[in-house]
Amino acid sequence: MRVVVPFATVDPKTRLSGPLDPEERREFSRAMLGDVLESVREAGGEPEVLATAPLDVDTPATVDDRPLTEAVNAALEPETAVVMADLPLLTAETIEGLFETPGDVVLAPGRGGGTNALLSREPEFRVDYHGGSFLKHRASASEIGSVGVVDSHRLATDIDEPADLVEVLIHGEGRAVQWLREAGFSLVRTESRLAVDRAPDGR
Amino acid sequence: MRVVVPFATVDPKTRLSGPLDPEERREFSRAMLGDVLESVREAGGEPEVLATAPLDVDTPATVDDRPLTEAVNAALEPETAVVMADLPLLTAETIEGLFETPGDVVLAPGRGGGTNALLSREPEFRVDYHGGSFLKHRASASEIGSVGVVDSHRLATDIDEPADLVEVLIHGEGRAVQWLREAGFSLVRTESRLAVDRAPDGR
Fold first, then answer.
1. What is the chain B residue with the closest CA to A153?
2. Chain B residues with beta carbon closer than 8 angstroms to that of A134
3. CATH number at residue B148
4. How many CB atoms lie within 10 A of CB A176?
5. Which residue among A25, A190, B139, B146 is buried most deeply as judged by most CB within 10 Å?
6. Residue A38 resides in a domain
C-alpha cells in the first residue's frame, strides 16, 4: 500500500512554540515523522513523504509547496493512504488496522474533528482538510461509496499543542518520546489528568 | 459479563461548571450514563451502577459513598469490567472490543493517562484511580499476569472539560449528544480544530 505522509518542512508545529524553540520544533517534528515512517514500513506500507520544501530523509519524497488540500489531492490515486506526520503514537499494528478496515474510503478521525489518516480505494474521492475535515470527508465519501471509520486513540492523537505531549510521554515508544525525554520532559501528576514538566537543564 | 459503572450522583462534572449550571450538569451526566448503560447492554454485558448516593435508574445499583478506588475494589470480582459513566461515545462494538481483548487484565487508557475502562480476569488485581492510573494499572497488572490494552478513541474520550464536548457533538449518537443539541450547543470551526458554541436561547 502506497502511503503519502504530508510534512511541513519549514517552521513546523508553531502551536508548540511555548515549550519548544524553533530548532527544537524542527527536531521534534522530524522525530515524529521518523516514528510514522517506521510504523508504515513495519506494516508493509510504502511511505512517500509529501513535503512543503526539500528535506533530507531516508524515504522517497516529493516537494509540493501548495496548501495541504491541493498537494494531497494531486498525490491521491486509488489504493493510497494518507497518514499525517504528527502521529508518534502509531505502531505497525495501528497502520495494519487502517489497511484492513473495509470501505471505499476509510477515515481515522483526529481529536477535534480532523482527519489524521485516510485510505481511498475510490478514484473520485478528494480531500478537504480545512476546518472539521472528518465530518466533511465522511459526508463526501458516503456520496460516492462505503465509508469505514477506524476507532483508534493512537490514530486520533495528533501532537499539536503542549497538552498533547502528555500522550507521547505515556504511550510513545519511538524517536519522539526519546527526544522529549532527552530534552528534559517528564510526566507530572495534577489533580485530574497527567501533565508535562520540563527540567531546566533539559538538552 | 458483569460491568460496574461508577457514577457520582451529587454535583457531577464540576469541570463543566463554565458552560453548564448545576442542574444541567446533573442532566448531562445522567444522559452520558444512559448512553454507557445502553452500550453495555447491547454488547451483552450486565451493567451495575456503583453510585455515590441513591439515584433513580433503570439498572441494578449499589450505593457506596467511599472514594472511587475503595468503592471499585470492594465491587471487583474476577470477570468484572469497570467502565466509567462519562464515555458517551461508546457503542456496543466498543464494549465488545473490550470484552474480546485477551489478557488477565485489560486496560483502556483515557486521554491524559486515566483508565476509562478495564476488565479483570485475575482475582488479585486492585485498582488505584489516583493520578495517572493507566501507567500504575499497567505496572501492577503486569506483575500478576498478562496485560491487554484497548486502542480506542471512543474509550479514550471521557468528557470532563468544555473542550471535550466537541467530541460528543462530532461522534455521539445517543442521549448525551441529543441533550447538548437541545441545550443549544453546536460545532463551530476555529482555525485549527472544531470548538463548541452555545446558542443564547438553548434550553
1. B153
2. 170
3. 3.90.550.10
4. 26
5. A25
6. yes
**How many percent of chain B have pLDDT more than 70?**
99
**Residues of B in Cβ contact (< 8 Å) with A189:** 131-132
- Cell numbers 479514550 correspond to B156
Q: Say if A183 falls within a structural domain.
A: no
The three cell numbers locating residue A179: 527526544
Distance CA B201, CA B203 (A): 6
Calpha distance A107→A104 (Å, rounded): 10
Look at chain A and report how many structural domains it folds into: 1
A20 domain residue, yes or no:
yes
Rounded to two decimals, the ipTM of the complex is 0.94
pLDDT at position A203 is 66
Summarize pLDDT for A23-53 with one digit per residue, the tens.
999 999 999 999 999 999 999 999 999 999 9
Contact call for B112 and A166, based on CB within 8 A? yes
| Helices assigned H by DSSP within chain A | 22-42, 68-75, 92-100, 133-144, 153-156, 165-171, 175-182
Range of the structural domain that residue A70 is part of: 2-158
A17 is a domain residue? yes
Q: What is the pLDDT of residues A50-101, one digit of tens each?
A: 999 999 999 999 999 999 999 999 999 989 999 999 999 999 999 999 999 9
Cell of B165: 464536548
